[in-house]
Structure formats: structure tokens, C-alpha cells
Amino acid sequence: MNHVNLIGKVCSTPKILEMDNGRRIARFTLTTQERFLDRNGEMKTRSHWHRLSAWGNWVRVCEELVVEGTELAVQGSLVSRFYSSGKTRRFSAEVEVNDLTIL
């Protein structure tokens, strides 16, 4: 099963791109916070940044309602791909949005 749940804040207003075939995609980054106790018993916070992509009707929602600082709950699936940049092979992973709730 490939299922991702994230709750966090949008880092920047989504970029809306139109593909050659006319389909649109919204791409943005979400930051989440992880709190934990270190070895000394002190509370620490670690931030994680997640790349997200939204298709279909979610593009319109992102375009109209999502801006930097918006708190979201996202459900989706993890998508990874390899691509070439010159002679270098690169890896990319992102969460493809299946459901989104503005908190």
C-alpha cells in the first residue's frame, strides 16, 4: 500500500504549470514539524520539507485557496522517478495529492 498523510504549512504559493497536452499541475512544498526528546531529555523540533503535486480539480483549489503559510492536511501517494540532467542521473520523489483539507 502506498499511502502518505501529512499535516503542515505551505512554504510558498503553488506554481501552476500547463503541460503540452493541456493538463494542469500545481506544484508546491509543504513543511512538517517533528518533535522529539534528545538524549538529555530536552524537547527538540526537526523540520521536513515535502514536494507535492496536485492534478485535476485540486489544481483549481490550490490556485484559488492555497498560499504561503496555509496549513493543510494532505493524503496522497509517494511517487518517485529518475531523470537525466546532462550525464548525471537524478532521483526525485514527491507526494501526489489525492485529498486535501485546509485547516
The strand count comes to 6
What overall geometry do the principal axes of the alpha carbons give? Answer: globular
State the helicity in percent bands. Answer: under 10%
- The gyration radius over C-alpha positions equals 16 Å
- Specify the number of helices: 1
Distance between the termini: 26 Å
Topology pattern, helix = H, strand = E: EEEEHEE
pLDDT below 50 for ≥5 consecutive residues: which ranges?
A: none
Number of domains: 1
What does this structure look like?
The chain is globular and about 55 Å long. With 103 residues, the chain is mainly beta. A five-stranded mixed beta barrel has the order 1-3-4-6-5. The chain has one helix at 57-65; strands at residues 4-10, 15-18, 24-37, 43-55, 71-85, 88-102. The protein has a single domain (4-102), classed as OB fold (Dihydrolipoamide Acetyltransferase, E2P). A hairpin with a 5-residue loop joins strand 3 (24-37) and strand 4. The chain is built from one helix and six strands; from the N terminus they run ββββαββ.
